[in-house]
Write a structure and sequence with these properties.
alpha/beta; 7-stranded mixed β-sheet; 260 residues; 11 strands; elongated; single chain; 6 helices; two-stranded parallel ribbon
Length: 260
Amino acid sequence: MGASRSCRSSRKPPCCASLWFVLLLSVIMTTHACPKICHCSDRNGMVVQCTSRNLESIPSNLPRDTVVLLLSSNRIRHVPREAFTDLHRLRELDLSHNAIEMVEVGAFQGISDTLRTLDLSNNHLSSLPKDTFTKLHARVRLSHNPWHCECSLQEVLRELRLDPETVNEVSCFTSVQEEYVGQPVIQVLDSGINFCNFHHKTTDVAMFVAMFCWFSMVTAYIIYYIKHNQEDARRHMEYLKSLPSTSHISKDYDTASSIF
């Protein structure tokens, strides 16, 4: 308001025009600034092309009106919490062909309502936290990752809309049951297999083994204690037997008394 009043009262219109130009330029720069390492183009919203730029992390100075963000074929290993929280118009996110090993819970916070396509294929993901994709409506690609098929992965997939074209390429690289290695995860789950049951059984077996070990240790201690006490008792008895008997001592005392 101060700038507006000063411009109205000023007798130098060129100065006012310059001031408004600077303000407008700062707004444009804040909204549309493009990372130097990327290429940006405006197509009813910003398309940010950062493919094959040797990036090791997600750029932090992305335009707020980004609708398409292409980060494929880089060296990104980690997707942190709230990595895209300011990109409220983002519809397409491509993170394929990176080295991503970890996606934090809340990584897609702020874009869960607008995002329509998410590509995490061809990375190094073996597991994901249960709430990674909470409230996400996007169609997700998870193919060609070294997935470990167990309970947490099953719970993650239950909340997702997997891309139907690549759903059979989401396979078990390792598994709680060796027989499922190499098989598509969805086909295994559709056959009625419940990895969470295996998880509970494994936990029960571990508890049983722990209890058995504890019981064995207690039993061994009791046996050792009894044997040790028996050995002490035997030695004590032998010691008592080695002492002179009281009757023999009494006879020697009587003999000595009669002499005197």
